[in-house]
Amino acid sequence: MDPHTGSDALRQWFDVLAEERAEPYWAQLQHFVEQERAHEGEVYPEESAVYAAFDLTPFAKVRVVILGQDPYPNPGQAMGLSFSVPSGVPLPVSLRNIHIAMRAENIEPPEHGDLSGWAAQGVLLLNAGLTVRKNGAGRHLRIWRPFTDAVIRRLNDRTEPMVFVLWGAKAQRALHRGLVDPERHHVVTAPHPASRGASQRAFREARTFGRVNDLITGDPINWSG
Asked: Which band of pLDDT confidence, cut at 50, 70 and 90, is reported for residue 2?
């Protein structure tokens, strides 16, 4: 994020996270990702989309956070929003199961996998790692963690309640690590969308989308949008 370029939303996030950019790890993180792109082959998403979640959902407008892990590690899928793929790209397993869970709540999913419509309504689609090496899921998570933890902490510090959607054990560790205060904010948990067997059935029956709309302040999220 550059304070002198980008959208108003990105500049707002830059202001909120200015202290993080001053930390030594930030320069190390940027160097690491640059080296990965230069020497280790393809890195996703493309550089212009790394901060898409922040670009589409300004800090002051966040009402819901859906926390993923890292971007899809296959060509053409990652677009900087957790669980989302560009319109026209076949749905990955996680997103296909999200659509099935929506139908179980009598919500018609979008006709594509692009979740930008959610982001525009105040749903921050945040991955714990903002980049990934091609076919190398999880390889960048550790180095991004201090930054994305800081994002969650800044949101948690806000006085107005929001809803944190934590799908799967890895996302739910944000609670155990004290990043999200369930006394201040609402927390909706369920198994991960990519889980199988009984856990997948539990995900579909968790009513994530209805529960979020029961908890948020203001207009409900149009999940079909």
From this structure: low
